[in-house]
Inverse folding.
């Protein structure tokens, strides 16, 4: 390990230790102020859980991030929760699976384990939601909890509210409503907030294939209300596509694999795309990659055209601005995915 890496690791450990001490001190201060000891300690334990993945959560505001997913059943349930949960743009949210709980057992009274109360003994999931960089208020949805399915709200060490449900489905149907009661942003929706909220919705909808079913406050969406950030309907739609399509792929290799799979499955007759070919500007391979981007844009425009409130009347063959904007967006997406300039000979067709 280099000296620079050692220094960063040491500083990270020191920062975590300091944060842990601050959480413990806060819990003690809350109890001295008259808070119930169990509730003060419980919120502290939730803060510690969030601290473990704080940097990752802050890097993904307004998104539900999973802590370890093991097996098809946990994955399917995560997708179900993801589809039903509408998060405000300044929240951090953590999805904790039974397998994650099992791999990080937390200290608990022996009688809890004997009674089967521990989360990993009950195949329980938890969703923790708080404001990013501010854990004063924490929401915990337990699916199921010790006695039932429910949502608990902790504020500065006090248990201020709880909601009980007859089933997990009933809880999930109500979860977004409760989230917006406690974490709705103030009325100052900046351009950044509007963009993050809109793009998180669209990315999630593409991932879950549930655009019509995903709960969403359209009044804060620039795709539904382009005037919110001073855009035209066409500008807003292509901004959405340029921002979200590259994020669907973790690397250029993943997109190349997608393009090649599509070529094989649909028998398109395109050349196989390789990283070497793209980085050496092989014209045929670059064209094949651009064709896949063009196809993806077209497919997503078809989907958006069916979404109530999104105006795609500009999408006409006789609209030269549409053709130009489409080509510019395709080139921008190509460059965002490959991290290199798009060859000048390429245009979306």
């Amino acid at each position: 390990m280099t000296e620079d890496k050692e220094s960063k690791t040491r500083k990270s450990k020191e920062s975590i230790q300091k944060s842990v001490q601050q959480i413990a001190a806060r819990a003690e201060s809350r109890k001295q102020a008259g808070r119930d000891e169990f509730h003060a300690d419980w919120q502290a334990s939730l803060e510690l859980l969030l601290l473990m993945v704080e940097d990752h959560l802050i890097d993904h505001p307004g998104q539900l991030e999973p802590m370890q997913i093991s097996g098809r059943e946990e994955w399917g349930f995560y997708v179900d929760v993801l589809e039903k949960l509408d998060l405000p743009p300044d929240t951090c949210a953590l999805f904790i699976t039974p397998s994650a709980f099992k791999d990080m057992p937390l200290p608990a009274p022996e009688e809890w384990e004997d009674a089967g109360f521990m989360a990993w003994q009950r195949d329980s999931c938890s969703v923790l939601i708080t404001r990013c960089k501010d854990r004063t208020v924490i929401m915990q949805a337990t699916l199921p909890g010790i006695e039932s399915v429910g949502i608990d709200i902790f504020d500065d060490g006090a248990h201020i509210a709880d909601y009980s449900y007859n089933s997990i489905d009933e809880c999930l149907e109500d979860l977004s409503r409760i989230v917006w009661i406690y974490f709705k942003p103030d009325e100052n929706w900046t351009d950044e907030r509007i963009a993050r909220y809109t793009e998180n919705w669209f990315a999630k909808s593409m991932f879950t294939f549930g655009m019509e079913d995903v709960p969403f406050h359209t009044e804060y969406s620039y795709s539904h209300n382009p005037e919110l950030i001073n855009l035209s309907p066409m500008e807003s739609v292509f901004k959405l596509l340029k921002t979200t399509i590259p994020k669907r792929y973790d690397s250029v290799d993943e997109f190349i694999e997608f393009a090649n799979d599509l070529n094989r499955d649909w028998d398109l007759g395109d050349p196989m795309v390789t990283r070497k070919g793209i980085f050496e500007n092989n014209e045929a391979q670059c064209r094949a990659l651009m064709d896949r981007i063009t196809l993806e844009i077209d497919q997503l425009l078809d989907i958006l055209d069916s979404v109530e409130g999104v105006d795609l009347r500009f999408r006409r063959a006789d609209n030269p601005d549409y053709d130009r904007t489409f080509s510019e967006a395709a080139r921008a997406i190509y460059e965002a995915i490959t991290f290199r300039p798009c060859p000048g000979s390429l245009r979306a067709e």
User: Anything to note?
Assistant: The chain is about 55% helix and 10% strand. The two ends are 49 Å apart (CA to CA).
